[in-house]
Amino acid sequence: MIRYSLKLFLIGFTVFITACSSDSPSALNDVDMDTAEDASYEMANDEATEEKALGFEGEAEESQEQEIVQEDEQVVKNQLPDVQMIIYTGHIQVEVDDLTTMNETIRTKVAKLGGYVVSSEEYVSGEGERRHGRIQLRIPQEHYEEMMRFTEENSAKVMEKVSNGQDVSEEYVDLESRLRSKEAVEERLLTFMDQAKKTDDLLKISNDLSAVQEDIERIKGRMDYLDNQVAFSTITINIQENQVKVSELQGRDDLNTGEKAQSLFMNTLNFLITVGSGFVVFLVGLSPILIPLLIAGGFIWWKVRTKKRSHSNE
């Protein structure tokens, strides 16, 4: 029984070894091929998935940029008709009975309307020495026409009137668009600066950021200027007084006859003293030359006179 069992065990073990030695290469090859095919398939799927993801991401970015551009263009188109930003400037030249009264009237009206006077001057010129004045003022835009009419109504005569308007709506909308673009660039540069680790990168980003921020400040400054010019209109008023200045008869106190005569007398004496002093200085200064010349001249004159006498005696 034991021998029979041992034989069966040996026969079975031999068959098992034979089967393993004959089937193991193909089995291993099958396993390797299956594994390689699965791996290549998975890699292909991963690459395809990644390409699709990148493709979708690129398309999404391009689509987003196109949407932003279209949105900005639509904003510009929508705002241009609605936003009317006009800078009004006016010039009016009037003739009045009294310059001082007109100045006070204009200043009172300007303060009441919420404006302010930029500059003011008065001078006398022309035939008859007429008084003239010039006032430049800033007035809220909604009161521009009212102030122009008020000046006309309170003057005796309107000699010239000019009113101009400059539409800056398109420029202002363009500035707003540029400002949004610059602020977006500024935000990206700030993000890059936080992520940068190299000194060279930090310096380059810092320089670019400074340039962008400078552009932003310049754009904001221009926008503030346009806002102020639109909010307050500028009016220049030239005023001429129609009264001719008549010279008054000078009084006795204004003539000062005695003082003027005394002043003239003293000036004459001072002139004579100055001339005499100059002559004395001239003689003294040239005495080294004048004295020899006088001696020589006297000697020659004496010789000539002596000869004439001798000839007359003969």
UniProtKB/TrEMBL annotation:
Residues 84-301 form the DUF4349 domain. This is DUF4349 domain-containing protein. The chain crosses the membrane at residues 271-302. Residues 1-19 form the signal peptide. It comes from Allobacillus saliphilus. It comes from the Bacteria. The keyword Signal applies. Keywords: Membrane, Signal, Transmembrane, Transmembrane helix.
